[in-house]
């Protein structure tokens, strides 16, 4: 089923690229994204180059809704597929403020979810692939193209063509997690032997597995892709970076930690993720650094899970402040002036 949404100016092809220098000793200021009234939990999932953040926050009854955060407007409730008692999560945002995510639509008895788009305060249900009753949107690019999964397959959705089944490897299950400006999709899928592989999907070649670090690896996921085609994710116990040629690089772990996974990458090849539940940033110049060492020592924060980094070097995710789990926004102290007007 093709859902037709009048997106107007929200759909376009805009690619913002930057080439600001990054120092290995970069430091950051940290902003608490807050929570909904009487709630204690929030998490930043994604952000665009204007510093607009989306994610989810819980209410006092532990239900959650997706949020949209701006420096001027603070935390705004995006709502859910009616009724408002339904659960929702905002997973991605593009440069035009188009937000993708998912919402429950049937609380009893299965709490199944549908992918949604939030456009100018309205929520639109994108439906599912034929035969599926559970789906989520995970990524959106600046053309308004959405990716996600509709159990058991990854999908791509466009306003013109609706939802397309991207297939799967021989094991039959796949998820699409991110999409770039070239409509290249990354995620994971399984093979007939039960192993999970990071994948990349393109219009010309379909779904292809990405290389592992060693033949013994049985679990991998490609979690993010930038507009240059560089991919970040995890293979076995390590955060990794795949280049345009498909070569895979082990990004290592933080001192004293035994594992790592990467969740985000920007067009400057800066990668964020966690290592032993501790937030890191990785750069070609500085390697893997503990983000907690790069914020004010008296901030009261412990940063655990950074989920995304934009081309300004801003980072969003979740950490602990005053004993509560809150979403955060990190901004580089050396950030140049920037206008989104």
Describe this structure in words.
This protein has 341 residues and is mainly β. The chain has two domains: 35-165, no CATH class; 191-321, no CATH class. It has strands at 28-32, 42-47, 53-58, 64-70, 74-79, 88-93, 99-106, 112-119, 122-125, 135-140, 146-150, 153-158, 162-165, 174-179, 185-190, 196-202, 206-209, 220-225, 231-235, 238-242, 248-252, 261-265, 271-274, 279-283, 287-290, 301-309, 315-321, 324-332. A hairpin with a 5-residue loop joins β14 (174-179) and β15 (185-190).
Secondary structure layout plus pairing:
Layout: E1 28-32, E2 42-47, E3 53-58, E4 64-70, E5 74-79, E6 88-93, E7 99-106, E8 112-119, E9 122-125, E10 135-140, E11 146-150, E12 153-158, E13 162-165, E14 174-179, E15 185-190, E16 196-202, E17 206-209, E18 220-225, E19 231-235, E20 238-242, E21 248-252, E22 261-265, E23 271-274, E24 279-283, E25 287-290, E26 301-309, E27 315-321, E28 324-332
Antiparallel strand pairs: 1-28, 2-3, 3-4, 4-5, 6-7, 7-8, 8-9, 10-11, 11-12, 12-13, 14-15, 15-16, 16-17, 18-19, 19-20, 20-21, 22-23, 23-24, 24-25, 26-27, 27-28
């Amino acid at each position: 089923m093709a859902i037709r949404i009048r997106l107007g100016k929200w759909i376009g092809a805009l690619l913002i690229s930057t080439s600001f220098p990054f120092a290995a000793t970069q430091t950051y200021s940290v902003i608490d994204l807050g929570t909904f009234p009487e709630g204690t939990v929030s998490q930043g999932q994604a952000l665009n180059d204007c510093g607009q953040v989306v994610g989810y926050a819980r209410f006092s009854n532990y239900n959650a809704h997706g949020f949209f955060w701006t420096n001027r407007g603070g935390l705004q409730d995006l709502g859910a597929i009616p009724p408002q008692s339904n659960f929702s999560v905002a997973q991605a945002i593009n440069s035009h403020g188009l937000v993708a995510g998912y919402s429950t639509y049937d609380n009893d008895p299965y709490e199944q979810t549908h992918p949604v788009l939030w456009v100018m305060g309205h929520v639109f249900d994108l439906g599912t692939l034929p035969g599926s009753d559970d789906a989520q949107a995970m990524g959106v690019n600046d053309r308004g193209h959405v990716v996600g999964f509709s159990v058991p397959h990854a999908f791509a959705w466009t306003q013109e063509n609706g939802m397309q089944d991207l297939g799967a490897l021989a094991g039959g299950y796949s998820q699409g997690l991110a999409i770039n400006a070239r409509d290249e999709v990354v995620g994971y899928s399984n093979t007939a032997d039960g192993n999970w592989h990071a994948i990349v999907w393109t219009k010309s070649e379909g779904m292809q597995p990405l290389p592992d670090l060693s033949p013994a690896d049985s679990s991998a996921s490609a979690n993010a892709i930038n507009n240059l085609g560089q991919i970040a994710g995890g293979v076995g116990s390590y955060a990794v970076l795949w280049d345009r040629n498909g070569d895979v690089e082990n990004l290592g772990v933080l001192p004293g930690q035994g594992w790592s996974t990467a969740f985000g990458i920007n067009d400057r090849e800066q990668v964020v993720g966690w290592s032993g539940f501790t937030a890191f940033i990785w750069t070609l110049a500085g390697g893997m650094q503990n983000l907690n060492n790069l914020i004010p020592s008296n901030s009261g924060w412990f940063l655990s899970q950074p989920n995304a980094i934009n081309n300004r070097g801003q980072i969003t995710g979740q950490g602990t402040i005053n004993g509560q789990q809150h979403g955060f926004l990190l901004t580089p102290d050396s950030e140049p002036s920037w206008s989104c007007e």
